[in-house]
Structure formats: C-alpha cells, structure tokens
Design brief:
It contains 12 helices and 19 strands. It is of the alpha/beta class. Helix 6 runs antiparallel to helix 7.
C-alpha cells in the first residue's frame, strides 16, 4: 500500500528479518523505551507510559510525534500504525467518564477500534541521558553538559535474606519473577555467600528442620539483591511464599543513590562566546522557529547557557543559581523577563513547540537502533503533521 506523504521522508524499514528476528509486541517496545527513558525519572505529577493498549498487542508499525492530537491519531489509524509514541501524554489526570463526543474520547475509541497502542515518554525523556534536553543542548552547540536540576535517583534498598542450600534455586527463581535485582541494563542481579545458620525452635514452632529446644546448625545461603522502594512488600511476599522456613529472616538496608548525571534542564558551555543578540538570532535559525523573544542586553557576553525544553518557568530560580548567563526555554513569562534582566542576565524564549519537536525524529532513530539490536521487525516513521500552533502577524 502506498504511504501518505506525511511520513515518507522519515520512514525507516528494518531489513527483512532473519530467522533470529521476531515480530514485536507493545511490551517489547515498552522495554526499549524503558532503556531510553526510564520511568523512574518522571516527575511525580506526570503520567508517562502506556496510555492505552496492552503489552501483548502486536506491533509492526510505530509512529513518533510530539502530541497525540486528534489529527495525528486519525492519520496514524488510517496508515495502519500499531503504536503511537508521543512526548506529551494523552491522559494527564484520571478520567471521570469517556465521552466519545469529546476529543480524548474520540481518540480512545479510534485507538481501541484500530488496536493501536498509545505510549508517552514525557518528563522521563526530558531528564534522560540523550533525551530531549540533551538534544536541545547539542542543537545549540553546548559542551560540558550537566543537569540544571539533577534527578534524585530511584530509591533502592538492599534486600538480604537467608535460605537453606536445598531451596536456593527455588527461592532465587521466585525472587527473579519480581522487579528485584535490576541494575541498569542488567536484570536478575544478586550476590550469594554461604555460611551456617543457627536457631532453636520454641515448642509452638513448626520448623522446616530441627526439633524444639534443640540447637540446629544448617548450611544456608545469604542472598542479596536490590529492590525498588515501592516494590519492597511485593518482593518480600513473593520470596516468603517460596521460602521453606516458617519465619523467614531478612534485612533491608537503604542504598543512597549516586550523584545523578540525569535530570531536568541542562547547563553547558558554548565553544565560543557570543553576544545575547547573536545567540538569539542563531537559535532562530538552528531551531527553524518563527520570531523568538529575548530579554536582557543584546550585548551581554554569553559563555554558559542554561536551558529547559518545553515550558521552563518553574526552573528559573535554578537558572539564577547557576553560572549561566542566559536561559533558553519556552513559555517564559513577563515577570520572568523582568527578574532576569534585573539580575544582569539574559533569557531567550524559543517557544514550546520549537524546543520540543526535535524529539520526534531523534526518538525514532533511537528506537530504530534499539530494535535492530534486539532483532525486532518494525517500521518506524515520524509524523510530519504537527506544526507551531501560534501564528504571528
């Protein structure tokens, strides 16, 4: 079937699959996205991830876009897209009802009718390494990048428990059916050491081995694995069900996350100093945006730049606390401009759309490479329907 013009120029076809390649599911693509934009990096108020669909839905065609607009969803369904991946989530807040006469209701109905999954990577993609803020920083030409607001990192605990040697494999198998033991791109990570456990059962006990009032000495294995804070109860309960002891002994130790190289915004250095006016003019060309606004003296010399893709007013105080001379973002406000100018700094509003749409082709390329490495047979395109919603006269 001939493809429509809106996705032709960015369509990418993975070569004809070999025997080792396999048809993908939405769950497979979600695993790729977790590596690209881990969900734990998302802000608490955000709602990234699977918006509609099921992990078992087959996926042959993927489309990347900034927003799940009705026009985008309609075109994707018409093109036979199986999974739409956007930056902005379709659902931000819980829905009280699904009215198919409303835009979101119509989108949900279309997606279900066409069995098209919709997935978003929002603030987690903003914060991730090689995510949207890194993309914007590189487009500006910044070097020596670091987060403007470093991520706090995912809270982990070290779970330590003890199991008799004859149940070691069974309990480990149960442990790894949970989320425990993941370190970066590796799963099922643990450490084991052998020793001797001692105990003396009370008369009311029902020991796996040993007798009341008598000391028992049992060859045991100490097993250690990392567990996310929110998964602790589920992991312990799963292990407990597979454990032979009436009372399972375990310890939990908080693990302080290392300083993060991920987070919201970026601060970086220009390879050559520029005036604020020249930098603003260059960004208009680099981002292919319409007219952009800037505040501060156009002759201000800029070496360090802070930025935040999308709407960045909430990070203004972080910019003012940094070494950067100028702040680049979108949706900046009147009083933001006054505060920045009063501080002797600069501010460039490149617009929300211009600072974020660069994610669609970049994410498509990241997915192509990830799918190729996993041997997944998918076709990935970039939506070209979206445009800056504001016009100027």
């Amino acid at each position: 079937m001939e493809k429509e013009a809106w996705c032709n120029s960015h369509a990418f076809f993975v070569p004809k699959p070999t025997d080792e390649e396999m048809t993908a599911t939405a769950g497979d693509i979600m695993e790729l996205m977790e590596a690209i934009a881990p969900l734990h990096l998302a802000e608490e108020w955000d709602n990234p991830g699977l918006q509609i669909g099921g992990p078992d839905w087959p996926v042959k065609k993927i489309l990347t876009a900034l927003d799940p607009l009705p026009t985008v969803v309609e075109a994707a369904c018409r093109q036979g897209v199986d999974m739409l991946i956007t930056h902005h989530p379709l659902i931000f807040k819980p829905l009280r009802s699904i009215d198919t006469a409303t835009p979101i209701g119509k989108i949900l109905l279309q997606a279900i009718e066409h069995r098209m999954a919709i997935f978003s990577a929002h603030t987690n993609y903003d914060s991730a390494t090689d995510g949207l803020n890194d993309l914007l920083a590189r487009r500006i030409g910044l070097e020596d990048l670091r987060p403007l607001v470093p991520s706090k990192g995912k809270e982990h605990y070290k779970l330590v428990f003890f199991v008799p040697e004859d149940h070691e494999d069974k309990v480990l198998e149960a442990l790894f059916t949970t989320s425990a033991g993941r370190i970066g791109a590796y799963s099922d990570c643990s450490f084991r050491s052998r020793g001797t456990g001692t105990f003396r059962p009370d008369p009311s006990a029902s020991p796996h081995q040993g007798e009341p009032y008598k000391h028992s000495h049992v060859p045991e294995v100490r097993i250690e694995a990392l567990v996310g804070e929110k998964e602790i109860s589920k992991v312990i309960e799963t292990v407990r069900k597979a454990h032979p002891y009436e009372t399972m002994a375990y310890d939990l130790y908080p693990v302080k996350p290392p300083p993060s190289e991920q987070g919201l915004g970026r601060v970086g250095r220009l390879p050559r100093k520029e005036s604020l006016g020249d930098l603003a003019a260059r960004l208009r060309k680099e981002l292919k945006s319409g007219p952009i606004r800037f505040a501060g003296s156009k002759d201000l010399i800029v070496e360090w730049v802070a930025l935040c893709s999308g709407s960045g007013s909430s990070l203004l105080s972080d910019f003012l606390s940094s070494q950067a001379q100028v702040y680049v973002s979108g949706d900046l406000r009147y009083h933001d401009a006054l505060n920045v100018a009063d501080a002797g700094r600069g501010m460039i509003d490149v617009g929300h759309f211009a600072s974020e749409y660069i994610m669609a082709p970049a994410l498509a390329e990241q997915l192509r490479e990830a799918a190729r490495k996993k041997g997944l047979d998918v076709e990935i395109s970039v939506c070209e329907l979206e445009k800056e919603p504001f016009e100027t006269i």
